[in-house]
Write a structure and sequence with these properties.
Elements (H helix, E strand, L loop, with lengths): L2 E8 L3 H8 L12 E6 L4 E8 L2 E13 L3 E9 L2 E12 L2 E11 L3 H10 L1 H18 L12 E2 L2 E2 L1
Antiparallel strand pairs: 1-7, 2-3, 3-4, 4-5, 4-8, 5-6, 6-7, 8-9
Length: 156
Amino acid sequence: MPKVQDSIDVQVPVQQAYNQWTQFEEFPKFMDGIESVQQLDDTHVQWVAEIRGESRQWTTEITEQRPDETIAWKTIDGEVKNDGVVTFEQVGANQTRVNVQMDVEGESTTENVAGDLLGVVKDQVHGDLERFKQLIENRDEETGAWRGEVQEGETK
């Protein structure tokens, strides 16, 4: 299963970076291949992506969410397994490090090996982070925010 870790520094306060990242339905604006994202409720998100020319769907559950710190998720249904965590770290007055760790598994061994060998998943995540940086740095403010907290999949 491809494991991906990547980080990027964005020139905005941690609260602004975090708030924008909570706007899951905006992800197609910076995530390559993501066709749509639908927030089903506070802890469930449905994804549709084009992967190797085919449309794939999956649903994730947010397992942990702490404002300005962490969003963690796991796949609960669908054709792709995508589990991970994104953390937000203030590294300066108006600078935030966004750290992504993901485990991704396709439908077949061939997809998983190709993803690992070719670095496809890693390259895509890096490109997505670069596009997030452009998106957040080129606006005066985030498009919205969800400041709730999730522990063990339950909203607090």
